[in-house]
């Protein structure tokens, strides 16, 4: 049976499929990106944070604390998909200890 629509699938599509099979990290990142894209109609500060989060997804650093490099717990990312720091570092950023 022959594929009728457009012959070969695009290179990007093929690459995405290969990645999908190789690592579920990629699938997870895609899910997270979808989650972020679903967050529409926020104020501009959040849009900036969202943009930064998308860039971090693109370069593979999404979900890692900007400060200490630890991975941010999934529960925290669910509550705040644009979180840039782990709870510890966020607390310190908000309440610097003298
Ligand atoms: Zn941290």
Structural features, described:
With 98 residues, the protein is mostly helical. The chain has a single domain (11-94), classed as Four Helix Bundle (Hemerythrin (Met), subunit A), CATH 1.20.120. The chain has 5 helices and no strands. The protein has helices spanning 11-22, 24-37, 44-59, 74-79, 87-94. It is elongated and about 60 Å long. The model has no long low-confidence stretch (mean pLDDT 81).
Task: Please describe the topology of this protein.
Blueprint: H1 11-22, H2 24-37, H3 44-59, H4 74-79, H5 87-94
Bound molecules: zinc ion.
Residues 65, 67-68, 70, 85-86, 88-89 line the site of zinc ion (ZN).
Brief rundown of the structure:
The protein has five helices and no strands. By secondary structure, the protein is mainly α. The longest helix is centred in the middle third of the chain and has 16 residues, at 44-59.
